[in-house]
Amino acid sequence: MTETKTEESSTQPNMEHAPLNRLSGVLPDLKAHLIFWSLTLGGLVLDLWSKKAVFDWLGQQQSHGLSIINDFIRFIIAVNNGAAFGTFAGKPFFLTAVSVIALMIVLGVFLFSGTRHRLVHIALGLFTAGICGNLYDRIFNDGLVRDFIDVYYRDYHWPTFNVADSLLCIGVGLLIISTFLTEKSSQKHPQQRK
User: What's the pLDDT tens digit per position in 93-102?
Assistant: First the structure.
């Protein structure tokens, strides 16, 4: 009798581990984690270091900025109490809450979307670094984000930005590119089956 029960239990799927098996099929693999967390940490360190270095250096120089490429790019000291292009200026609690929510969403997408595309992992890592860099400023700099990259031509100036803003834009761009690549890939597969 005991032998029969053992054989029956070995042929039936183990229901205790079924949720874990489904979850492991969705969770990112080790390479995805290495890409995502390396870019997140590296981007965050680069952003915070660059802000501190430029602000400390330009603050000591008491100059009106440092020209990087004449008549195109210079480093200046600027702070922004809003979001992109000065939107929601003067609402630090709202912007902090939006950043925290965005961070949770991006982490959720990375951990549970099941995507295997490395470009998406790169984009999400850069996006997370950008969110964390500006979130750090909002929390520890009285709601003010430190900006220092001034792109200009004659009298026209693009809104001053920082490394975190650049990482956010690159991340969004890569997500858009990934979407087009995924669509093209999915269009090729049905054609190959015909």
Answer: 999 999 999 9
Structural domain of residue 74, as residue ranges?
28-182
Out of 47, 137, 147, 150, pick the active-site residue.
Answer: 147
Long-range contacts, stretch 92-96, CB < 8 angstroms, 24+ apart: 92/138, 92/142, 92/143, 93/143, 95/138, 95/143, 96/135, 96/138, 96/139, 96/143
3-23 mean pLDDT: 51
Active site residue 165: yes
CB of 150 closer than 8 Å to CB of 74:
yes
Question: What is residue 9's predicted lDDT score, i.e. its pLDDT?
Answer: 47
For the record, the structure tokens of 32 come out as 């995805």
Domain count along the chain = 1
Query: Considering the domain boundaries, does residue 8 fall inside one?
Result: no
The catalytic residue among 47, 137, 150, 165 is: 165
Tell me, yes or no, if 147 is annotated catalytic: yes
